[in-house]
């Protein structure tokens, strides 16, 4: 779930009086994508969960030092998770003292940034599909996210293949309006991948 503009405004307005509300909104909005981000780095779901939870705890403990700007809070969480993942990966390879002296590998930094962007784009695509009308949403999820063919969708839903095609076309028109150009491009790449396989 992406924090909507209204929720962001509400969260920013309530930040001083109710930081718990902001923390809850942040957790609801960013937990899944931070978990995915951590998993893409360390490939260990349980440890990823721990590291993401620790990032939220770290934010809570340092909230007075972190800007009240939602984007900066999000960046704080991503950086915290990335650093925790990199530290975790290095832990078995070298002693802690040596780790503290090393600069992050530029390739690791670029890869981490790529994975963060990927998590954000996927979250935007999932949120946009979830906001579609029910028929479009179900068919889009099955076709674009699960990779089912039109005939498979028609068979599972008990509808004609033409209905599936029409709903997918309508969904794409709506998604083009909802998604940023970059995210829409990522969605079309995902669709082409499924069409080839």
Molecular structure report:
With 197 residues, the chain is mostly helical. 80% of the residues lie in helices and 0% in strands. The protein has ten helices and no strands. The protein has helices at 5-14, 19-42, 45-61, 70-91, 96-101, 106-130, 134-145, 150-157, 161-178, 181-196. The two termini are 29 Å apart. Mean pLDDT is 80; it is low at 1-17.
Radius of gyration: 20 Å
- Helix content bin: over 70%
Residue-averaged pLDDT, rounded?
Answer: 80
Main beta-sheet strand count, sense and barrel state: none
Contiguous uncertain segments of 5+ residues:
1-17
Oligomer: single chain
| Category by helix and strand content | mainly alpha
Q: Write down how many β-strands occur, each being a DSSP E stretch of 2 or more residues.
A: 0
Q: SSE order, as H and E?
A: HHHHHHHHHH
Quick one: overall form? Answer: elongated
Terminal CA distance: 29 Å
> Strand-residue fraction?
under 5%
Quick structural gist:
With 197 residues, the protein is mainly alpha-helical. It contains 10 helices and no strands. It is elongated and about 55 Å long.
């Amino acid at each position: 779930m992406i924090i909507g503009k209204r929720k962001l405004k509400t969260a920013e307005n309530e930040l001083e009086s109710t930081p718990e509300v902001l923390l809850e909104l942040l957790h609801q909005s960013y937990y899944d994508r931070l978990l995915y981000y951590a998993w893409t780095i360390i490939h260990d779901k349980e440890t990823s969960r721990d590291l993401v939870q620790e990032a939220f705890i770290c934010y809570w403990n340092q909230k007075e030092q972190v800007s009240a700007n939602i984007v900066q809070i999000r960046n704080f969480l991503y950086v915290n998770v990335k650093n925790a993942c990199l530290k975790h990966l290095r832990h078995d390879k070298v002693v802690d003292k040596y780790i503290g002296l090393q600069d992050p590998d530029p390739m690791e930094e670029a890869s981490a940034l790529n994975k963060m962007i990927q998590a954000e784009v996927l979250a935007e695509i999932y949120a946009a599909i979830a906001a579609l009308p029910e028929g479009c949403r179900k068919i889009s999820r099955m076709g674009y996210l699960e990779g089912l063919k039109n005939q498979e969708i028609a068979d599972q839903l008990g509808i004609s293949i033409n209905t599936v095609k029409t709903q997918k076309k309508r969904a794409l028109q709506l998604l083009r309006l909802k998604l940023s150009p970059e995210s829409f491009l990522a969605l079309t790449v995902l669709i082409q991948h499924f069409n080839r396989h």
